[in-house]
């Protein structure tokens, strides 16, 4: 998890190269008063309900007015899940254009804060908007199980 990389730019694209199943998500940042060492020796997920109060307690104005505080893409099924840490949560949601992914696929995710959208690409082909209603600052991270992942900033596909 990257605690120091906060994305507040209006248009930011990342590309993920998969070797096995991976779960990619992004969450609210900055959280300047949250100590990452506190969570270093225990299972951690932005979806763990007992941590929600910790996250909301360090809310800043940089979060904007949106209510999507963390969102993920399950690369096995292609579904998305999100939460606002205040009791509203949607898990394993199908979205228009959704596809599953396999080892060797290249996944692109474009966060466009002008439009408030997260668009997904697979092997340079646009699949669709996975989530809307986004505002404020976010940070990318990945959760893996026996996987290798390469993450790099790139230009959005032109096709």
Task: Find the count of extended strands (DSSP E, 2+ residues).
Answer: 10
In the CATH hierarchy, the architecture is Sandwich
- CATH C-level class: Mainly Beta
Residue share in helices?
A: under 10%
Low-confidence stretches: 1-8
* Global shape: globular
Radius of gyration, in angstroms, nearest whole number: 15 Å
N/C terminus separation: 31 Å
What proportion of the residues form beta strands (DSSP E)? 35-45%
Mean pLDDT: 77
Please outline the major beta sheet.
5 strands, antiparallel
Q: Structural class of the secondary structure composition?
A: mainly beta
Total helical segments: 1
What's the SSE pattern? EEHEEEEEEEE
- Order of strands in the sheet with the most strands? 8-7-6-1-10
Characterization of this structure:
The protein is mostly beta strands. The protein has a single domain, classed as SPRY domain (Jelly Rolls), CATH 2.60.120.920. The chain has one helix and ten strands, in the order E-E-H-E-E-E-E-E-E-E-E. The strands form two sheets. It has a five-stranded antiparallel β-sheet with strand order 8-7-6-1-10, with no helix packed on it. A hairpin with a 5-residue loop joins strand 4 (80-83) and strand 5. It comes from Thalassiosira oceanica (Marine diatom). InterPro entries: B30.2/SPRY_sf, ConA-like_dom_sf. This is B30.2/SPRY domain-containing protein.
